[in-house]
Automatic annotation (TrEMBL):
It is found in: Cell inner membrane. Residues 17-468 form the Major facilitator superfamily (MFS) profile domain. GO terms for cellular component: plasma membrane. It comes from Gryllotalpicola protaetiae. This is MFS transporter.
Length: 482
């Protein structure tokens, strides 16, 4: 285990490692914010607008399935090697995405990109948890939040510019130089000292069952009512088979010695509450990130650049709040901080129900900003609460469980919202949705997001209400035990 040393910041002894984590996080942050504003342009160029949700769903599904694997690998073969492999795979996917000549090819390349992205956030967060104490992590969150803040402005704006210039492929190719620098910095600066341990086998059967079950679930949601009728034998059969594979996955995970997804961790109240909260966060964020730009462009009639700026409000609010969340949970505890955040999410989601065909773009941006602030105050303390309850050898798995839930929430949420939108809209000759039908579909999406926000609020009520001293004792105990 790497030793913790004094000083937090880019000029400290651990500064180069922190910079490498910021660069790695920047890869996913930029990719998360840049593609949504260019999605309409991609559909116009490659066609198949109704397949557009697949661009997000397959990426998130691939990411979700491998997050538990990477979490286990980080504990077994080391954080550094796992993260380097993930970044390399992400860059390969980015190259292929930029070279795609059709929507199916682009969707396939997004799978590869997602398989790599699955390593970046959970392993980076695990490294941060290894290197810094709980109080220091509150300060480190400010640095990591600054990455998301920059990406929240640069990503949607750059995506909109690339889209309007007709060079949307550069939203993927721009990852290459950033990723190369991240690999170099991580390889050079992070010297991992792991405790000797027996290498545990990876639960590949569980991974295959999970991938198969969730893929069929998304297939049924996205293609039902389009490629086949919901009540047809094929439509029902896909959902039945998906349920069978997911049930088999649960059966295997309960009996295998080293599960890919440790259901035993969910017996801890803090981990279970954090996981449910992360699941709901994934649904809300990707639902808004996917459909707010489409709403702004195809209902309100704005260009990709303005749509990107509206979405930027969401991604600005998140890091702005996350940078302050550390101070709040050290003073008031995890539960109070998360409840404040969740109430903001409920407020913002409720306000989106007011949006209509002729609403102001400024209202869209304001509501997104409120939701983003709520996410920042919720996501950070709920994750760190779970991490602080784990010993060193469990921390990768706990972080992976949290990130897995967020990715699955995002993938399933986008699929459900995509099914709602596809069932309500009609396409023009150019292959883009018409305004009135899309406006009605978006109201249903906003309604669903409001309901999910309420579930998020309930889940964080089960987080521990530790004060600062109790939190530090928990964290110190875990570190000493490791």
């Amino acid at each position: 285990m790497p030793e913790r040393s004094s000083g937090v910041g880019l000029r400290s002894e651990r500064g180069p490692v922190l910079l490498s984590q910021m660069l790695a996080t920047g890869l996913v942050a930029l990719d998360s914010t840049i593609i949504a504003t260019a999605s309409t342009s991609i559909a116009k160029d490659l066609g198949h607008f109704q397949q557009l949700p697949w661009l997000f769903s397959v990426y998130l599904l691939a990411q979700a399935v491998v997050v538990p694997i990477y979490g286990r690998l980080a504990d077994v073969v080391g954080r550094k090697n796992t993260l380097l492999f993930g970044i390399a795979l992400f860059l390969l996917g980015s190259i292929l995405c930029g070279a795609a000549w059709s929507m199916p090819v682009l969707i396939g390349a997004r799978v590869i990109q997602g398989l790599g992205a699955g390593a970046v956030l959970p392993v980076s967060m695990t490294i941060t948890a290894d290197l810094y104490t709980l109080e220091e992590r509150a300060k480190v969150q400010g640095y990591l939040a600054s990455v998301w803040a920059i990406a929240s402005v640069v990503g949607p704006t750059l995506g909109g510019v690339f889209a309007q210039l007709g060079i949307w492929r550069w939203i993927f190719w721009i990852n290459i130089p950033l990723g190369a620098v991240a690999v170099f910095m991580l390889w050079r600066s992070y010297h991992e000292k792991r405790a000797s341990a027996e290498r545990e086998p990876i639960d590949y059967l569980g991974a295959v069952l999970l991938a198969g079950g969730t893929t069929l679930l998304l297939l049924g949601l996205l293609e039902g009512g389009q490629a086949w009728a919901w009540g047809s034998a094929l439509g029902v059969g896909i959902f039945v088979l998906a349920a069978a594979l997911i049930a088999a996955f649960v059966y295997v995970e309960l009996r295998v010695k080293h599960p890919i997804f440790s259901l035993a961790l969910l017996k801890r109240r803090v981990v279970a509450a954090s996981t449910v909260a992360s699941l709901m966060i994934g649904v809300v964020v990707l639902g808004l990130s996917t459909y707010v730009p489409i709403y702004a462009q195809n209902v309100l009639g704005f260009g990709a650049l303005i749509a990107g700026l509206a979405l930027a409000a969401l991604t600005i609010g998140w890091p702005a709040a996350a940078s302050q969340a550390g101070r709040l949970y050290l003073r008031w505890g995890f539960r109070v901080t998360s409840v404040i955040g969740s109430l903001l999410v409920v407020l913002g989601a409720g306000l989106t129900l007011m949006l209509r065909e002729h609403s102001s773009i400024w209202l869209v941006a304001l509501f997104c900003f409120i939701i983003g602030c709520g996410m920042g105050f919720t996501a950070v303390p709920s994750l760190i609460a779970a991490q602080s309850s784990a010993e060193y050898h469990e921390r990768g798995a706990v972080t992976g469980t949290n990130m897995f839930a967020r990715s699955m929430g995002s993938a399933i949420g986008v699929a459900i919202f995509g099914a709602v939108v596809n069932s309500r809209v009609t396409l023009t000759a150019a292959g883009v949705p018409e305004g009135p039908g899309l406006a009605n579909a978006m109201h249903l999406v906003y309604t669903a997001i409001f309901v999910v926000a309420l579930v998020l609020l309930v889940s964080v009520l089960f987080l521990p209400g530790h004060r600062r001293r109790e939190i530090e004792q928990t964290d110190t105990g875990a570190a000493v035990t490791a």
